Amino acid sequence: MTRSPCVDSVCGFFPESFPNLHRPLRLALAIGFGLAISSTAALAQSPAKGSPDHIKAVTAAVDGASIKANTATSNDWPTIGLDYAETRFSKLNQINTDNVKKLGLVWSYPLESSRGVEATPVVVDGIMYQTASWSVVHAIDARTGKRLWTFDPGIDKEKGYKGCCDVVNRGVALWKGKVFVGAYDGRLIALDAVTGKKVWEKDTIASKEHSYTITGAPRVFNGKVVIGNGGAEYGARGYVTAYDAETGNQAWRWFTVPGDPSKPFEDESMAAAAKTWDPAGKYWVNGGGGTAWDTITFDPDLNLVYIGTGNGSPWNRDLRSPAGGDNLYLGSLVALNADTGKYAWHYQETPGDHWDYTSTQPMILADINIDGAPRKVILHAPKNGFFFVVDRTNGKFISAKNFVDVNWATGYDANGRPIEVPAARGKDPYDSIPGPYGAHNWHPMSFNPQTGLVYLPAQNIPVNLTPEKAFKHNAQEPGKFASAAGWNVGFMLNATPPKAPAFGRLLAWDPVKQKEVWRAEYVAPWNGGTLTTAGNLVFQGTADGRFIAYNATSGEKLWESPTGTGVVAAASTYMIDGKQYVSIAVGWGGVFGIAARATELQSPGTVYTFAVDGKAPLPAFVKYQTEGLLAGVKYDPKDVPEGTALYVTACAQCHGVPGIDKGGNVRNLGYVTKETIENLKDFVFKGPFRDRGMPDFTGKLTEADVTKIAAFIQGTADAIRPKPAEATAQPKK
User: Fold this and answer.
1) What is the SS3 assignment for 425-437?
2) What is each CA distance from 692 to 110, 185, 484, 667, in whole angstroms?
3) Rounded to whole angstroms, how far apart are CA atoms 216 and 231?
4) Distances (CA, A) of 717 to 588, 670, 720
5) Preceding omega of 78 cis (within 30 degrees of 0)
6) Which of 58, 71, 639, 665 could, after both became Cys, cross-link 83 (CB 3.0–4.6 A)?
7) Residue 134: CA atoms inside 13 Å, Cβ hemisphere, count?
């Protein structure tokens, strides 16, 4: 072929060399070839995957439009719940019921943490963002499993006691090149997605008089970052706040419960709520509660943000609102205008909460047919044991059915109010079923529109509630659970031993028929969140250290992998360069996992990523270290009763019952060395574990108190120690 003078341009390929071609065809070929050259040149200039330029390009593109567009494909996992509806349903089906048995590890990544890991990995074009305990953020190249950067917000670990439920974090939000994380100490921080450098931070704490924390994942929509706080056990007033994603300036704040009625209310919704509280209880001194510490969901079509509110503070309504009342907006789903934060509607799932029945558990937005008509609904399974279907356009109750056994209510009436069992609010000790840990806690559930089922981690953890006869805010009293750490619940916990059975299970729940379709039973409660996919699969991690895939229709177990420790978080799935991956972050913990466990393995926090035909070896697992049941500490048996009450006040929250519990991510004191308990004061007062989150009890306990606590620890170990078998006389031959 003869080249023309314009050899480096398209024209040089179609001169007289092809005289027999018609001019239109020659032109078309020229254009096509030119486009191919342009595409090749552009490809050659594209930044390498995982490079700073690539990260900048893919993270800067994350906004409302891209999140909605991704819903059609599920190629990425750009938000904590995958989509705005937080369905955790992926349309990917490359991994399916036929080939899931071939799943193998591709890489593992060390999170370098020993406390709870609760976050779902967020991934865009192979760039992963994951949080560990103490709100540390990890950026990971999901193509290789290599670290890109980490950000440690520098939490004062001596203040770890200011949160009820482990020093956990449930993940990040991603928006226009920024990564947003809520720090445990109450700061909201914006990071550069490429470098991990801080862009801005805001202190979200409204009042330093109370112990507020952040453990939930922020959400971003319409250019605003929305976050709630925890702290109701300590005496706090709940609220949610929206900040401008670019500047960090506060856009709006909505309180979940009313404040001091002698002062002007913030808005009409607070004035209306105040009518449902008895001011004789001076609820505002203890904050009232209602902290919105987890679920926040957004409907872009309705421009409504939905929050779930927390428990009362104190739990015992007789103390915070003696004349009764619904105590709005505790235990509720609340809709707010996304732009202004103005109250739109609410539905209260637990009126007059008395049992720590938060409604902060993750909600799912779905469009389903009910009675032959399409409805826009919220699907919700809060702590109180009932599965709710609520109209998300107006908050109207549709249906509720208990998904586990409950003993506080027999059901809900047509108006959506619970039909309570009177004894549940009595003055006598009461086996609360479900207990304060909840029939479903923060562990995410998922909804598969192909099967029509919700996949729900359900449980019961027995707790007996004995109403306190006298209550004083922030009073540290022997026998008052965790009062040395600032708890204010208004009940003595397990002063009478509970009798209800403990269990953990995965339920496949039909939200239209309000019935269980199938279940998987586990050896313990506190199992992880769920992921479901168009491959007809459900993935869940377990308390006993497994990551399992089930057939979403039948519940048949199809595959599992060991994880080295218990799993509490939920997985995500995504595509990289045409291949589907599944990632799960593992790290045992949370309020139950601090003191109890269901596995002998105690491996540190790790991200595991799987794909079909993955061949990478699992990392080495670490066995839980124990010195055997404590023996040999000298003590006065007369000190045991007082030591028991002091232990409940200061130690039980994290260490559990000596020798009875196994210990979780914090050691059980019935299985430490004799020397540790003999020198307990050296650990309790300005001790060496403050940098791991152990409180300093200086000024809260005396040396005499510590001696009595040691007596209880050794006395309990002695009481449960197996007795030597008596020699059995052998008959003479």
Assistant:
1) HCCCCEEECCCCC
2) 18, 15, 18, 12
3) 12
4) 25, 6, 5
5) no
6) 71
7) 21
Cα–Cα distance measured from residue 677 to residue 709, given in angstroms and rounded to the nearest whole number? 9
Catalytic residue among 356, 544, 639, 661: 356
Q: Tell me how far apart the alpha carbons of residues 296 and 307 are, in angstroms, rounded to a whole number.
A: 5
Q: Of 348, 253, 245, 267, nearest to 305 (Cα)?
A: 253
> Could you give the CA distance from residue 93 to residue 343 in angstroms, rounded to a whole number?
40
Distance CA 653, CA 102 (A): 42
Asked if residue 650 lies in contact with residue 709, where contact means CB atoms within 8 angstroms, the answer is yes
The secondary element (H helix, E strand) that includes residue 590 is helix 590-593
DSSP per-residue letters across 56-110: HHHHHT-SHHHHHHHHTT--SB-STTSSTT---EE---SS-TTTGGGEEEEEEEE
Cβ count within 10 A of residue 182: 30
pLDDT at 725: 62
Neighbours of 199 (CB within 10 A): 18
Query: What pLDDT is attached to residue 301?
Result: 98
Model pLDDT, residue 18: 36
Residues listed for the chain: 733
DSSP state of 729: P
- The residue type of 294 is D
* Cα–Cα dist 644/649, whole Å: 9
Q: What sign does the dihedral 521-522-527-531 (CA atoms) show?
A: negative
pLDDT at 729: 41
Report the SS3 class of residue 200: strand
Helices (H) and strands (E) in the chain, counts: 11, 40
Closest CA to 663 of 589, 717, 720, 714: 589
Q: How far is CA 53 from CA 50, 58, 336, in A?
A: 8, 9, 38
- CA distances to 67, 74, 340, 607, 675 from 191, rounded to whole Å, are 20, 25, 25, 21, 45
DSSP-derived pairing of the beta strands 198-203 and 187-192: antiparallel
- The Cα–Cα gap between 216 and 86 comes to 14
Residue 724: predicted pLDDT: 76
Phi-psi bin for 175: left (phi > 0), alpha (psi -120 to 50), beta?
Answer: beta
705 is catalytic: no
Characterize the bridge pairing of strands 430-432 and 463-467: antiparallel
Residue 329, both tokens: 């907006």
For residue 323 the two structure tokens come to 């004349």
Report, as an integer, the average pLDDT of 507-528. Answer: 98
What pLDDT, in 10s, does the model give residues 352-410?
A: 999 999 999 999 999 999 999 999 999 999 999 999 999 999 999 999 999 999 999 99
pLDDT, average across residues 257-281:
97
Q: How far is CA 503 from CA 257, 526, 545, in A?
A: 33, 9, 16
Q: What long-range pairs does 44-50 form, CB within 8 A, spacing at least 24? A: 49/125, 49/126, 49/143, 49/577, 50/126, 50/127, 50/141, 50/143, 50/144, 50/148
Eight-class DSSP state of 646: H
